[in-house]
Specification:
The protein has 239 residues and is an alpha/beta fold. It has two domains: 67 residues, Ribosomal Protein L25, Chain P, CATH 2.40.240; 157 residues, Alpha/beta knot. 29% of the residues lie in helices and 26% in strands. It is built from six helices and twelve strands. Strands 6, 7, 8, 9, 10, 11 and 12 form a seven-stranded parallel sheet that branches. Strands 1-3-4-5-2 form a five-stranded mixed sheet. Strand 4 and strand 5 form a beta hairpin. Helix 2 crosses helix 3 and helix 2 packs parallel to helix 6. The longest helix has 16 residues. 33% of the residues are buried. It binds S-adenosyl-L-homocysteine. The site of S-adenosyl-L-homocysteine (SAH) has 18 residues, from helix 6.
Length: 239
């Protein structure tokens, strides 16, 4: 029988490796999913692929799993980053969840001139990325970085990484992404779009490609999914 529950754990995974469960994980497996000793689950930790494991001990507040065999090797996404300006909470959560599903290596919330929120809950966003990986069968979890100013990120930019600057003023222009890009990034602005100052700075960089996402102005969360789709199709692991 194939294991249904997929669980992200921090522990190293290898044959015979035991994994102690946190209280929340024990509650989920034994309280919610009603698993007992001998039941099968899938584990991954973002480094060692996916493992079939069995429940060795099940308790109310804890438990132990034992890894039996590797069922998938580690599949890392392309070296693609998503830079986005945080928007309303539910839409920001959506962006992180979808980015993890679409296959990005890193998620960088950036504060732009017209970004409303000055703080994010990085740990909560990271938990959304973990849940998305659990759900979509991924073996890798993209890291969610702390909120940084866009200018700071650009100050330290490695020019070998091409940046797709999704700019709403490009509405309706063509947007074919082409060529060989080994490491890239997509930048999505907030509800208010980008400032002229940001536009000037970005378009002046040799590593920037200005990208249109079609004839309609998309909401930032839609734009993030659309841009990642284009990138994956042109350069990534969907080809
Ligand atoms: N307030 C702005 C729209 C911002 S949409 C305006 O009215 O013009 C939020 C973000 O989504 C934008 O900053 C851009 O990164 C992206 N976006 C939305 N539609 C786009 C399009 N058609 N082409 C390129 N980027 C787009």
């Amino acid at each position: 029988m194939s294991a249904k529950v997929r669980l992200y754990v921090e522990h190293p995974l290898g044959k015979g490796q035991t994994v102690e469960l946190t209280r929340d994980q024990a509650h989920y497996l034994f309280g919610v999913m009603r698993l007992g000793p001998g039941a099968q689950v899938c584990l991954f930790n973002g480094r060692d692929g996916e493992w079939r494991a069995e429940v060795a001990e099940a308790g109310k507040r804890g438990g132990v799993l034992r890894a039996v065999e590797q069922t998938k090797s580690l599949q890392t996404p392309p070296d693609l980053w998503l830079l986005f300006a945080p928007i309303k909470k539910a839409r920001t959560d959506f962006i992180v969840e979808k980015a993890a599903e679409m296959g990005v290596a890193r998620i960088l919330p950036v504060q732009t001139d017209f970004t409303n929120s000055e703080r994010i809950r990085r740990d909560r966003l990271q938990a959304h990325a973990v849940e998305a990986a659990e759900q979509c069968g991924g073996t890798f979890v993209p890291q969610v970085a702390d909120l940084q100013r866009l200018d700071t990120v650009l100050d330290g930019w490695d020019a070998a990484r091409r940046l797709c600057f999704c700019d709403e003023v490009e509405v309706g222009r063509s947007s074919a992404l082409a060529g060989v890009v080994a490491s890239g990034a997509v930048l999505i602005g907030p509800e208010g779009g980008f400032s002229e100052r940001e536009r000037t700075r970005l378009t002046g960089q040799p590593y920037v490609d200005v990208v249109s996402l079609g004839p309609r102005v998309l909401r930032a969360d839609t734009a993030a999914v659309a841009a990642l789709t284009l990138w994956q199709q042109a350069h990534g692991d969907w080809r």
